[in-house]
Amino acid sequence: MNSLVYIEKHKNRFIEELFGILRIPSISADSAHKNDMLKTAEWVKNSLLEAGVDVAEICETGGFPVVYGEKIIDKTLPTILVYGHYDVQPAVPLHLWNNLPFEPIIKDEKIYARGACDDKGQMLMHVKALEMMVETNTLPCNVKFMIEGEEEIGSDHLGAFIVANKEKLKADIILISDTSIIANDIPSIDSGLRGLSYVEVEVTGPERDLHSGVYGGAVANPINILCEMIASLHDENGKITIPHFYDDVEELSIEERALFATAPFDLEAYKKDLKINNVKGENGYSTTERASIRPTLDVNGIWGGYIGEGAKTVLPSKAHAKISMRLVPNQNSEKITTLFTNHFESIAPESVKVSVRPHHGGEAYVISIDHIGYLAAESAMETTFGKKPVPTRGGGSIPIVALFEKELGLKSVLMGFGLDSDAIHSPNEHYGVWNFLKGIETIPLFYQNFCEMTKHKTNE
Ligand code: BES
Ligand code: MN
Ligand code: MN
Description:
12 helices
């Protein structure tokens, strides 16, 4: 039975199964959901067993467990390691959702739920693709699954896990579906991801909240100061002002910039989708470049003072902000965090105290578009989309990808099937039924291509 027939026959069950995992609110950031995290890990383990792996287990880490599974058919054949994550982002603000985030529904051929695209839907494509290969006797190689539960909070315990499990995780390539394509009729493959450095800052003024009439004008207001400090982090050209921030940035060659510029991009549609009148960013770079090959600094949240109903005249004691910096190849997240910290402390006026607390970080990643893993994905997508995918660079981060390379010496192939408009991390996250099924159809071709190409390579 060919795969299209198999998918057609089983697609309703595949979607039902996806609904099953989407109903468990596995929010890694929220400790109230610890049990749901464990329930989801169990769910993934059972789903792997049902798909036909030889063994599946729940592996403890210092945080939420990793689900591991494998099917070894012949030790002399290549091994593909599939990575994905079963944790999701918080669903708040709930009132902006049109359905309850953990009660999935289908509307206009799209599955709406938190995690539908990022990453439960995309992860499950791999499990269902394996089921199909096992059932139709077409699995051409060995496969291992490593599905983690802390991706959305920085994969803090995963580095130690892979170091401790090098033998178990031995493979020839890592395959990940946790990124997006340009459009359903414009397939693309991310040939890189950005790194990340995430910090939280606190500015303290007077030791207590003050009457803003009695003291205002004479005592530094930490919120005013924090705003000034943040505003000073970019100059009029959209460049980040932290000294040495750009020192290690890898500049792309003219050829590479030209290659990425071939990816279709419609600025008018982009603005319309986001309901903005204009874009904004670093001078000298296109919108696509600003969101992929260039480093950035963004405030993710800012708070302090009175934010309740009505007005309260208060000069607050403290102000806070969460700040993320997206990094590009060759920048180092720890170094950037140190540069940020030193700079932020140095620009604080004497009237306030400043503290910077690092959160998580991770390094950027690139894969050559000549790598056989990339080529295997390219050819698989070309077959199922009927069009050769264009190479892109992803603006988001999957910190473990750089660690896989460092610790296991393995390249990851980022064969994602989401769309930027799927609203991942936002209210009304969704995933197209078409994309879900297209992924299941494409994955087995990656397996075949990769095995073929590996054979040729070793025969050379
Ligand atoms: N799947 C995303 C990353 C992504 C999305 C890459 C779209 C490329 C295109 C992932 O789940 C994610 O959200 N990563 C976080 C990393 C962080 C929490 C350490 C990110 O990019 O903010
Ligand atoms: Mn993800
Ligand atoms: Mn995510």
